[in-house]
Amino acid sequence: MFDNILIYFVVIPLIMLGGLALCKNIKQIRTVAVIGSTALIVLSVVLLMGYLEQRAAGAMAEMLYVDSWTWFTPLNINLAVGVDGISVAMLMLSSIIVFAGTFASWKINPLPKEFFLWLILLSVGVFGFFISIDLFTMFMFYEVALIPMYLLIGVWGSGNKNYSAMKLTLMLMGGSAFLMLGLIGIYYHSAPEGGQLTWNILEISQNGAIDKGWQYFLFPLTFVGFGVLGAMFPFHTWSPDGHASAPTAVSMLHAGVLMKLGGYGCFRVAIYLMPEAANELSWIFLILTGISVVYGAFSACVQTDLKYINAYSSVSHCGLVLFAILMLNTTAMTGAIMQMLSHGLMTALFFALIGMIYGRTHTRDIRLMGGLMKIMPFLAVCYVIAGMASLGLPGLSGFVAEMTIFVGSFQHADMFHRVFTIVACCSIVITAVYILRVVGKLLFGPVQDKHHLELTDATWWERLSAITLIVCVAAIGCFPNFFNELINFTFDGSIFKVLGMN
Amino acid sequence: MDYSQFLAMKQEIGLLVVFLLVFLFDTFMPKKAQGSLSGITCLLFALFTAAGFCPCQLADADAFAGMYVTSPVMVTIKNILNVGVLIVLIQSCRWANSDIQIMRRGEFYELLLVTLFGMYLMISARHFLLFVIGLEAASLPLAAMVAFDKNRYESHEAAVKYILTAVFSSAVFLMGLSFVYGLTGSLYFAKIYEALSVSPESPMLIVALAFVIAGVGFKLSLVPFHLWTADVYQGAPTSVTSYLSVISKGAAAFAFLVILVQVFGTVYSQVWEWMLYAIIILTITIGNLFAIRQRNMKRFLAFSSISQAGYIMLGVIAYNYVGMASMMYYILVYVFSNLAAFGVISAIENKTGLVGMDDYKGLYKTNPRLSVAMMLAMFSLAGIPPFAGFFSKFFIFTGAIQQGSIAIYVLVLIALINTIVSLYYYLLVVKAMFISEDECKVAPFRSSCSERLGLWISVAGIVFLGIVSCVYNYLLELSASSDIFAGL
């Protein structure tokens, strides 16, 4: 079992949990968290290298590092793992954000030990989700990632935290209720009559036994189930409240990684296993996600709380991910994955910076702040960079992702897709409006509060957190081809053969 | 008479031996030695429980011309009950040895063992006469146990309510039986089954089944037969409540499955599938909705246990062996989760007398270990991974969906949406303990050894029963090879 590198993505956080439980003071806690999250980054780099090497050597299997260990024999539930380019990219993203999140919560108070315990438990869920290819274990890890949010927001959050925490938990768990039914349904139709039923994604897609009628029933269940976490309209309302109330590292991890679970799940389960229904029903969800994209952007324009602005912008950007996935062609889907990476890094950066600014000014209302460029230049410059990435400046990650998405979407020649692509494109302009509004008011305007003049700039741990993320954002922006090739193999595989797509 | 048939009843006889030893010890030992009564009962019962896992138990056998049968599945469900009773006994030590209860301590243990004996008979009976004896033996002594808090008015009220509803439900059940007898001319399960499979449906059968379901439904507190539950759970001493809510319910659920499958199996889709369908929806929904408003922890768990009974019934409506295995697994997990919750409640109640949810505010600051145990219990009851409750919920849904009709998908969807409602109120408890910033009314204290032992066992069950897959695998293999569904 332990000769497969993937299993360590779960084992390391579990060891961290054990280590944290033994910690006595904040120094030990930080040591454990830093060592563990660094180990995860190293592990994901090793995985990336190994993966590319195998691909270069001509490994043609759909997934690599595939392994399976029996768990519940009679129901054929296995702990099955395997990765393709998308999962590798997602694992990279998660480990980077866990690393940055650790430094962003350097001074967490009160109860630092409990905070890190829950945070690492959350990351167990995230990593486990991305390595699983068995529907049962995937779902289990998915729920493991959801529940710590309740306490993380409830105990360490700010503002209307009780309401937000409960709303977030119940809505996400509501989504997973639909999902559970969908997954069990898939299981019972996973093999042709008389065959061995299975939860394994690869086997299910090979069998291709889910008949069309059942696909029509199961596709919406799974897509909505994951779509709730992907902030699909009208199930997005947990996101602004939840992100606004959560402590910094939790917002980072949640917007940066957890919302990607939604997009990844929609792709990996709903579309991958039920392509025919996806093709027929995609128009319904295109409308919904199209609304998310534009509505999220407009809502961000009128908010005054920094976190709400960023949370609505997340709704818009994550809407774009689902929007692109539903276009069902290679270019748009590649764009969707790029957008997941780009948004994950960029929004984590945003939330980290907002947390740092809030820690100093004790307000997130942009009307009460101004001129921060003079007071805390490092944070302000980082904020500008994040903003530029968000509005799609070439050279940063946002541009690459959005460009690919819209080019891919425009390949559909029919009226419906064209109209929605154009509508979604408008969100770029609206994004520029709300980003530049904040940058202008917050960073360049006159200083609003003279107490702010005494504030200090970023400390070393804050710099480390921000720089890590900025480097990654720039890396995607400057070397998109590398990521493109990493992801692309998945789309050359068998997924679209059913639909006869390019 | 062939006395060797008594050997088939190894577990019942073992239980009787334990009962007699406790009884003799309680009656004839001098006052000085009596102090160890609780310890000795727990020890004897632990030995008895361990003996139940001995593989020599696992053989099909019957006695009294087929009125009584035993099989590996029955032995297993009895073992599950035994484990639960053992935890209840351990947790109740401190309460039983308190100044007020010490005089009646012996009776508590004796009555408890007698009801357990009744439940054994309910599970193993294949003739309605024996079944009714078991049902009565399991119900009537419980009324006395509910009234155990002699000085509390609520306890008496609860006992009266319990005995009246129990007797009434027995009457309803017997009425149903008399119809069944009139239709088929026998009280043997197998003979009724045969008669029903040849004779066409009759309206009387529907009435008879409605009465039978109502009779057992009282015991399981299924809606609309649940009205006694909240008052009795609140009024009874906490140790009795925990016994009532897990053991009594688990035994009745399994007996219910046996009756519905082995007696009325032929009329599944015509008659009782739809009765049960409606009852499950009502039970889960109403139990959940009422639980939201409760501020007393015992009342709260009463409504939560009503909705849990609805989930257990999903394993019956599944009508296949996966459903049965999942139901047994669900009962097992439910035993551990609910007993962990009751363990915390009784520890706090014994120390301070507080049982309100508001009294739990800020508990994490004063009693972190108890709050963590309570949180795990709540998460497990709500079905949050990686705790056992998640697995049991997932499997019981899987079992139900194996039945395959669209109606079952709809039923499971309703049940799943209800899990969100239940998550809300379970989280209310977590919120009170962890998030609320109020000053805690419960001062830091160290609970007694027995309470801690009981909690440790329950928490270990919550954590390991799910992840360690062999338990469920074993139950599934056992059910697959059992003959309960053989007639189909």
Explained architecture:
The complex is a heterodimer of chains A (502) and B (488). Chain A has 502 residues and is mostly helical. Chain A has one domain. Helices cover 74% and strands 3% of the residues of chain A. Chain A has a two-stranded antiparallel ribbon with strand order 1-2. In chain A, strand 1 and strand 2 form a beta hairpin. The longest helix of chain A has 32 residues. The mean pLDDT of chain A is 87. Chain B has 488 residues and is mainly α. Chain B has one domain. Chain B is 75% helix and 1% strand. Chain B has 19 helices and two strands. Chain B has a two-stranded antiparallel ribbon with strand order 1-2. In chain B, strand 1 and strand 2 form a beta hairpin. In chain B, helix 4 runs parallel beside helix 10. The two termini of chain B are 34 Å apart. At the A-B interface, helix 5, helix 6 and helix 7 of A face helix 16, helix 17 and helix 19 of B.
Please, what is the average pLDDT of chain A?
A: 87
**Regions of chain B with pLDDT < 50 over 5+ consecutive residues?**
none
**Any low-confidence stretches of chain A, pLDDT <50, length ≥5?**
none
Chain pair with largest interface:
A-B, 33 and 33 residues
Q: Between the first and last Cα atoms of chain B, what is the distance in angstroms?
A: 34 Å
User: What Rg of chain B is obtained from the alpha carbons, in whole angstroms?
Assistant: 22 Å
Tell me about the biggest sheet of chain A?
Answer: 2 strands, antiparallel
In terms of DSSP E residues, the strand content of chain A is: under 5%
Radius of gyration of chain A: 22 Å
Overall mean pLDDT of chain B stands at: 89
Q: Label the overall shape of chain A.
A: globular
Class inferred from helices and paired strands of chain B: mainly alpha
